[in-house]
Hints:
Largest sheet: none
Number of strands: 0
Radius of gyration: 20 Å
Number of domains: 1
CATH topology: Methane Monooxygenase Hydroxylase, Chain G, domain 1
Strand content: under 5%
Shape: elongated
Mean pLDDT: 80
Distance between the termini: 84 Å
CATH architecture: Up-down Bundle
Structural class: mainly alpha
Helix content: over 70%
Oligomer: single chain
Low-confidence stretches: none
Amino acid sequence: MGQWLSWIKSNEKELLLILDNLAKKAVETSEAVVVLFSDLSNAEQGEKIHRLETEADVLTREIFAELNKTFITPLDREDMQRIASKIDDVMTLWMELHLECTATKSLLLHHIVKKWQTN
């Protein structure tokens, strides 16, 4: 009889753990961005940002999947979805910023080399 009520259980610990891990990824990515901006040629940091953003996408999907399986949540369902989505948006922004800086640096370098070759 208890089987059909199993979806009512609270996954509070799982949800909060995933949300905490997602927040930690955001902090780690922010730190990698700071290091990258101090040395734009640091490809290792760029790869780290990309890896962390990909891992954050997985965690965001996990939160949504857990929320879909859970009736009782530690916070309002929509609030948890919004928090996860916003953290993921920030992570995506950091990755896009890294890609933009890399592209800009490449264009600037190309422009400098071209100008140097014409002189």
